[in-house]
Amino acid sequence: MSSIIQLLPDHVANQIAAGEVVQRPASVVKELLENAVDAKATDIKLIIKDAGKALVQVIDNGLGMSVTDARLCFERHATSKIRHAEDLFSLHTKGFRGEALASIAAIAHVEMKTKQDQEELGVHIIIEGSKFVSQEVAVLPKGTSFAVKNLFFNIPARRNFLKSDTVEYRHVVDEFQRVALAHPKIHFTFYHNGSEMFNLPPATLRQRIVTIFSGKTNEKLIPVQEETEIVAIQGFVSKPEFAKKNRGEQFFFVNDRFIKSGYLHHAVMAAYDGILKDGAQPSYFLNLSVPPNTIDINIHPTKTEIKFDDEQALYAILRASIKHGLGQFNVAPVLDFDRDSNLDTPYHYKDLQGATPTIQVDGNFNPFSDDKPNKHFSNYKKPESTANWESLYVGLKQDADDIAHITFENEEMTSSLFNDEEIEHSVHKTYQIHKKYIVSSIKSGMVIVDQQRAHQRVLYEQFLVNMTVHQASSQQLLFPLNLFFSSSEMELIQDLQVSLKNTGFVFEENNTDHIVISGIPVNVTESEVSLVLEQLLGDLQDGIPESSFSQSDTIAKSMAKSLAVKTGTHLTEKEQENLVNGLFACKDPNVSPFYKPTFITMRVEDLDKKFAL
Ligand code: ADP
Ligand code: MG
């Protein structure tokens, strides 16, 4: 029988390996930055075009390479960083697999220039899809420059798989920030399409954090420091009152390498136990130094996961040192984040006159009778796509100006739930149970409304109407609000400005690290503004939708989520009633903006059946 096994040619093997190492432009950024750090550079420039899809270039002033090494570094398993298997247990560098450059060269156009300090001349190499195109001697400064162009030019499937520039850019920024935070002593600059995005001069960790995440971060930071035989911990955590809605600012570094660890994250959260609001996320920037032979970083090709020898001890030490840090700064054991519900205006309808509508009621209308199918009560199915939601708002036109009108516009629905008798005798028409559900009697039985979801639906439709049908009115602030954001968050806000303006926000001027807001939407209070924007930024981690319609949709959803009255809030009878009326005046009252049921009904017959047992 003939043999069928063959060795794969190198360039094919490299392309396959590339799949593991290079998923997107940000992967190239990570590998090149880490190589520059390993080469002991003190000044590193990152230059990208089109979110890295067209170009990723890293220029360093590090050790450079000899002519032979310059050629060799593109071979698979070519590394200067380990020689023996044992070296794996005493690693002080980021790279060691000798895979990255071979992989990158297999799937892009690479141009490298490098010169060692002691040499007169350097070398300039061009390599495309693993093929050497040229090699020349050149006059160069000390250090190395890698330019990686047209990523995935020879693998269209992968190229097409890349996300929008906004999303890819975010990933690049994430990688850049991770390396920059791990090495505050190194000067980093970052240019995107010719504009300087970051310029981070050599600094302490605290200064570096503040330069990256805006000046306001400084007051949020509490230092954490601990030295034991197993681990030395150094870094900062945020005061609990500055906790965020999302996990954007959480960084662990182990021996100057960014890592992800659910286990260590848990230790941090345990230290905050009892002082954080549900779901709130502290920021942390923590450097753990451990002896290299007590960790195994070999378990993942892109090396963001790690295995520690003595995980349990590490957990305990980390938790204790953060608790200690928080204690030293007199962070009160329990902070009351809950807003005084009396100060809330849970929904717009609250103060409107005429909450008891004078409407034409069809007393005989029965939403449950089979011969009169009512689309509002049909079982809701999550739509395959949201492409058609715009049609919900077509035709509302200027009528939308009169919110009260909208409230009761959908008369058929309202009338089907509350018969005239019940509407007239509005005393005890609704009951709130467990500060969560609103129960009300209807002709056919009872309806139970989930207050939080219902209010989300009401607000969501209001915001959408405001944004899509006409310019929302805004309330002028007496004193403009200054809100500070990191530069990447500022980018997102810039991109969203038009949509935000449509909701009623008025922006005064644009700065690099903060926005000045002089007007806010009518149904948002001043104290809620930063909450709303933070939630929105958290919801946009995966990028801004391209179309303005889906942008509005995302913003409306996010704002509805932040502003809706929460489970656990007491509602007055009037508020309950208005909420129920508001819900059934919605175009799509059955589900929350997140496709969760907003209410259930129970027919008298169903109740009878239960009692018959
Ligand atoms: P690794 O970093 O795992 O060793 P790479 O493929 O990333 O593998 O790099 C291969 C080798 O090329 C490195 O070991 C190093 O010797 C050399 N090299 C890569 N980038 C640089 C740089 N910016 N400056 C100096 N040498 C470099
Ligand atoms: Mg490397």
UniProtKB/TrEMBL annotation:
This is DNA mismatch repair protein MutL. Belongs to the DNA mismatch repair MutL/HexB family. This protein is involved in the repair of mismatches in DNA. It is required for dam-dependent methyl-directed DNA mismatch repair. May act as a 'molecular matchmaker', a protein that promotes the formation of a stable complex between two or more DNA-binding proteins in an ATP-dependent manner without itself being part of a final effector complex. PROSITE patterns: DNA_MISMATCH_REPAIR_1 (PS00058). GO terms for cellular component: mismatch repair complex. Keywords: DNA damage, DNA repair. Residues 209-327 form the DNA mismatch repair protein S5 domain. The gene is mutL. Residues 429-571 form the MutL C-terminal dimerisation domain. It comes from Flavobacterium fryxellicola. GO terms for molecular function: ATP binding; ATP hydrolysis activity; ATP-dependent DNA damage sensor activity; mismatched DNA binding. GO terms for biological process: mismatch repair.
